[in-house]
Design brief:
Helices cover 67% and strands 0% of the residues. By secondary structure, the chain is an all-alpha fold. The chain folds into 3 domains: 71 residues, Annexin V, domain 1; 134 residues, Flagellar motor switch protein FliG, alpha-alpha superhelical domain (Annexin V, domain 1); 95 residues, Flagellar motor switch protein FliG, alpha-alpha superhelical domain (Annexin V, domain 1, Orthogonal Bundle). Helix 11 crosses helix 14. The longest helix is centred in the C-terminal third of the chain and has 20 residues. 27% of the residues are buried.
Length: 339
């Protein structure tokens, strides 16, 4: 019984949600999924496909936690977007309220962009590849960082640098830009002439996208940006969550990350890490595991820098996935963007 309880406790948030959805039945589960974004649907779908041999104890634990959570919730806040919209219009009038509403409640003019989130990166790249780089930057800013990174990687080097610079420099979208987006997406979302601006892009958006790029491509883009604007390039770099930022992650969360990665990847990644980060990893392992890792590091001969960077990217990808699932919290310069 104790062993079954331990297994139940080890289930992460996505796995628990997947188990809950499978208990609801096809119809009810499909209704729930309709209210989720593409990334959430993909994660839950993958988790449901991997579920195998769930014990009665694990199922009871999931259902008990769900019931406990539901009992703590209220209906306050449901449908709050429409409530806020009506209150602001009644208080300020239609004209004055529109600009404020757009800054507070995004989504009224992004139906076409939301459709892009469900598309394959190559399909998105094909749709926007002949558009002006400013339009490309706006579109990528609306996508999830990992999807935007995959799209950006499909463009030539010169285009990557130009578009990333524009993403970092975005400071709201003017009506004419929204009209151009309407044309690109075949009028799939409305172009409201009263819209003053939509807050997308910026330095953090650029940093988040670059975090998901391969190291070599990321380096080329950063070099190109710094050639054009040194200060902007440095500001982007400061906000990126890189491997050394794991030093600032809580010990408990480091332990969660370590459970998700292979020893081979860890050895490769630590070959290029600072001593302080290596020690942080060692102290969050069992004594025996730490000793074995030290031995493996010492025995490992020279390795290619590209292999080290690839392993570090792999670990960072795992960390971001766990952070997106709510299982850990990433610290560091760009940490608040991943919680």
């Amino acid at each position: 019984m104790a062993e079954e309880q331990d297994k139940a406790k080890k289930l992460n948030g996505v796995q628990r949600s997947a188990i809950l959805l499978m208990t609801l039945g096809e119809k009810a589960a499909s209704e729930v999924l309709k209210h989720m974004d593409p990334k959430e649907v993909q994660k839950l779908g993958a988790a449901m496909a991997q579920i195998d041999n769930i014990s009665r104890q694990q199922l009871e634990d999931v259902l008990h936690n769900f019931c406990s959570t539901v009992q703590e919730e209220t209906g306050l806040g449901l449908g709050s977007d429409e409530y806020v919209r009506k209150v602001l219009i009644n208080a300020l009038g239609q004209d004055k309220a529109e600009g404020l509403i757009d800054r507070i409640i995004q989504g009224g003019n992004t139906k076409g962009l939301e459709t892009l989130k469900w598309m394959d990166p190559r399909a998105v790249a094909e749709i926007i590849r002949l558009e002006h780089p400013q339009i490309m930057a706006i579109v990528l800013s609306y996508l999830e960082p990992d999807q935007a990174a995959e799209v950006l990687a499909l463009f030539p080097d010169r285009v990557r640098v130009d578009v990333t610079l524009r993403i970092a420099s975005l400071d709201g979208i003017q009506p004419n830009a929204l009209n151009e987006l309407n044309d690109i997406l075949e009028k799939q979302f409305s172009g409201n002439s009263n819209v003053k601006s939509s807050s997308v892009g910026g330095i953090k958006a650029a940093a988040n996208i670059l975090n998901f790029m391969d190291s070599s491509v990321e380096g080329e883009i950063m070099d190109g940006i710094k050639e054009v604007d040194t200060d902007l390039g440095q500001n982007i770099q400061d906000l990126m969550f890189v491997f050394d930022n794991l030093l600032e992650v809580d010990d408990r969360d480091i332990q969660t990350i370590l459970r998700e990665i292979s020893s081979e990847s860890l050895v490769l990644a630590l070959k290029g890490a600072e001593d302080a980060l290596q020690e942080k990893i060692f102290k969050n392992m069992s004594k025996r595991a730490a000793e074995m890792l030290r031995d493996d590091l010492e025995a490992k001969g020279p390795v290619k820098l590209s292999d080290v960077e690839g392993a570090q990217k792999e670990i960072l990808s795992v960390a971001r996935r766990l952070a997106d699932a709510g299982d850990i919290s990433l610290g560091g310069g760009g940490g608040e963007e991943y919680v």
